[in-house]
Amino acid sequence: MLNDTETAEKGVRRLENPKKELQSHLVAGEAFLTWQIKEDGKFIYGYYPRLQRILSNYNSVRHFSSVYALLEAIDFTGNYEDTRRAKKALQWGIDRSPNA
C-alpha cells in the first residue's frame, strides 16, 4: 500500500531513449539466451558460482517460454543466425514433452 509520500513510480527506471535502450536490451537478451543453450538444446537456467553448480530445477514451462522469448528477440533484431539454436532448443523440449 502506498502512503501519502510514495508514488507508483518508486523503483521504476526512466528510459532516456526508449527505442535505442530497448533494442540494446533485446540484443543482449538474445545473445544471453542463445549462449545458455547447450549443444543438445537444453538451457542452462542458473548457475551458483560459489558452489560451482548449475541450477537443477527444470520444467517445460520455463523451457518453452525461454524459446518463445528467444524467437521474439530474433524476430525483433533480425539476427536469424540464432534460429538454428532456437530450433534445437524447441526440438529438445518437444522430444521430452510427456504429451508429444
Helix content: 40-55%
Please outline the major beta sheet. 2 strands, antiparallel
The strand order across the widest sheet is: 1-2
Number of helices: 3
Low-confidence stretches: none
Proportion of residues in β-strands: under 5%
The general outline is globular
What's the mean pLDDT score?
87
What is the radius of gyration?
18 Å
Question: What is the distance, rounded to the nearest whole angstrom, between the alpha carbons of the first and last residues?
Answer: 45 Å
SSE order: HEEHH
SS class: mainly alpha
Number of strands: 2
Looking at this protein, list some descriptive labels.
49% helix; single chain; two-stranded antiparallel sheet; 3 helices; mainly alpha; 100 residues; globular
Summarize the structure.
The protein is mainly alpha-helical and 100 residues long. The chain has 3 helices and 2 strands.
Outline the structure in words.
- The termini are far apart.
- This protein has helices at residues 18-35, 60-77, 83-95; strands at 47-48, 53-54.
- By secondary structure, the chain is mostly helical.
- It is built from three helices and two strands, in the order H-E-E-H-H.
- The mean pLDDT is 87.
- Helix 2 (60-77) runs antiparallel to helix 3 (83-95).
- A hairpin with a 4-residue loop joins strand 1 and strand 2 (53-54).
- Helix content is 49%, strand content 4%.
- The protein is globular, with a radius of gyration of 18 Å.
- It has a two-stranded antiparallel ribbon with strand order 1-2.
